Amino acid sequence: MTSPYHPPVKRSVEIAGHKTSISLEPVFWDMLRAAASEAGVPVNALVARIDAERLEADVPPGLAGAVRVWLATAWLATARKA
Question: Please, which residues bridge with residue 14 across strands?
Fold first, then answer.
């Protein structure tokens, strides 16, 4: 089994026609792909949704942090239902 303690990996994403990059640990990339698949949308579309939500915050976090928080919140919501 690969260690979950791996440095962040930078990947390109496209949000509203603009390319940017996000650095996330591999476990978060795996979770993001799984969440996008479950929602039936491409990863870029899910990242765009997360980006739109973060921009509505009083003090918007960085995109990578917003993705991590979104994934953790989604995981907690699922865990509480179980």
Answer: 19
Q: Tokens 């640990």 label which residue?
A: 25
Distance CA 71, CA 65 (A): 10
Which pairs with CB-CB distance under 8 Å and at least 24 residues apart come from 64-67? 64/8, 64/22, 64/23, 64/24, 67/22, 67/24, 67/28, 67/32
β-sheet bridge partners, residue 24? 9
**pLDDT digits 0-9 by tens, 2-56:** 677 899 999 999 998 999 999 999 999 999 999 999 999 999 999 999 999 999 9
